[in-house]
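User: C-alpha cells for this one?
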Amino acid sequence: MIAILKPGTTQAQMQHLVAWLKHMNLDVHISEGSEVTVLGLVGDTSRVDMELLKSLDMVETVKRVSEPYKQANRKFHPKDTIVEAGPARIGGGYFSMIAGPCSVESEEQIIAVAQAVKAAGATILRGGAFKPRTSPYAFQGMKGQGIELLLKAKEATGLPIVTEIMNISTLDLFADVDIIQVGARNMQNFDLLKELGKTKKPILLKRGLANTLQELLMSAEYIMSEGNDQIILCERGIRTFETATRNTLDLSAVPVLHNLTHLPVVVDPSHATGKAELVAPMACAAVASGADGIMVEVHNNPACALCDGAQSITPPQFDELAHKVKRIREVMV
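Assistant:
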C-alpha cells in the first residue's frame, strides 16, 4: 500500500502519521520527491482503514500495490535509485561502463586490463574469481586469490570492483569487494539473496536464463526485504530457440523495467551474444534503449583466455566502443 501526501505537509505532520502506521506493526518507507512525498507501507496492510487514511487532511490519495514486489516497485518509490560504489554512480541519470576479463588469471593480466579500461572510460572493473561453469572440468577461477588480485588492481587504478559470489560460505571473502554480483544461475538462490540483503553492499543481480522480469524483481525483493536497496538489475540474455547467439538479448527489458521499478538497469552484451563481433553493436543498442550502464568482457589476449575468450573484446576495441557509447549518450540526453 502507498499513501501520497499533499504538498505542504510538514515534517512534524508526516512523522506523526508514520508513528501511527508503525504502531500497526507496519514498515514505512519514505520517498520524498521535489513535488510529492510517498509513504510505502509494508506488512499486513489489511488492518489499515483506507477510508480513514484517505480522510486525513495531509493525505492526497491511498492505493494498494497489486504487484507482488512492493519495495522494488516504482509506485512505492517514484524517484530513480542511484547506486553508489566508490566514485561510481549508476542510475538516476548516471551511466557506468563496467569492464574487465571474464576471469582473473594473473596479477599482470588483471592490472593491465584494469589500466586499459580505465583509460578508455570504464568506471567499474569486473573480473571473475569464482566461476560457475557448465563443465566440472573447466577452469573454476582463482577463488580467494582472485579477489586479492582484483583488490590489487583496484589499488593500482582506483576503480571499484565487482565480482560474482556463488555460495554463502564464501561471503567473508567479499568484505572489501565494492559490488557483489549474483549470477544468472543463482538468481533464485533465495537463502543467498537474503544474506546479501543484510550486507548493505551494492548487489548486481543478473536475470536468470529462463526467468521473467517479474521473477527478477521478486529476487530483488528478497534482497530489499532484508534492508538492502542498493541493487543493480542486469539483463544478460535469455534462452530461446535461437542458436545463432549464445542467448537472446532482450533489450525490451530495459524500458519495461524502468517503468516497473526504480532500480537501475545495466546490460551485459558479452554473455548475451557469446561472440566478440556482436558485443559492440548490442552494447550501442543497449545504450540507445536507455540502459543505465553496460557490462563488457575485455581481455588483453582473448585467444588465450581461460574463460569465454570468444566473447571478449580487446582493450583497443573497448576504447572504440567507449567513444561510440559517448556519442550515443550525447544524442540521447
